[in-house]
């Protein structure tokens, strides 16, 4: 290419593959100013103008606005800096589009009412910090000012909803349901009662933790009873109930007597709200964790077995 050659708008258009209208637009906007004019007054452009036009087209194809293109061409900003900033902006746009796609797929699955659709869209748009704040506020309001089980409260605070950048529709649905659950007055009151119960236990000297091994042992024995078809109020259930009570007596260093059975019954009934289990199921779904088997049948069986101690 002759570095001294001058080109008309039509020749620039042919060399770049752009339309004459587009080249004229860039020239009018000062992106590619003419180098000279012909005796007849037509705009002429040199090799540098052709290079500017090629770069301008590339930057526009990448989605940069005219103002930014002009700054790059005038060397007010560098190409790497612009590319980095634009890539960051595209990351945000891509994440937004992925979330919007997941919401639309969830809408197609659920068929919500216009009000539910608006709620779903609004909740799904919350940032990660806003999602964490919503759940943290729920925990603060239900456990705040109470000396409840510190391990349990710490576990709740550590299990924040982490909606992925490219969520599945069921993860969006789970987040919307979790947000609604955390704002449900009835559920908040139920969790507050559980927190008050834990605080009362601690005031009476019970500083026990989460007792994972005890819970697993109870689940295993009651699962066996359920599999064998043993009714909780039958004579066959009595030895199982006695063995489970003995486990609790040992774990909590209490006498195995009628008071222990009544305490156990109250403890089970306090924790039996199915919405509490649903809370953890939703957290697991949002975060892509395995969902634990339901404890509802276990609680129901054990509660029924202890019902004669009311």
Q: Could you describe the 3D structure shown?
A:
The chain has 310 residues and is an all-alpha fold. It has three domains: 9-76, Multidrug-efflux Transporter Regulator, Chain: A, Domain 2 (Orthogonal Bundle); 78-195, no CATH class; 211-309, no CATH class. The protein has 15 helices and two strands. The longest helix has 32 residues, at 79-110. The mean pLDDT is 88.
Please sum up the structure shown.
Helices cover 68% and strands 1% of the residues.
Which features characterize this protein?
mainly alpha; 310 residues; 3 domains; 2 strands; two-stranded antiparallel ribbon
Topology overview:
Layout: H1 9-16, H2 20-28, E1 36-37, E2 43-44, H3 47-61, H4 66-73, H5 79-110, H6 114-124, H7 128-143, H8 150-158, H9 169-182, H10 185-203, H11 212-227, H12 237-251, H13 258-270, H14 274-287, H15 296-306
Antiparallel strand pairs: 1-2
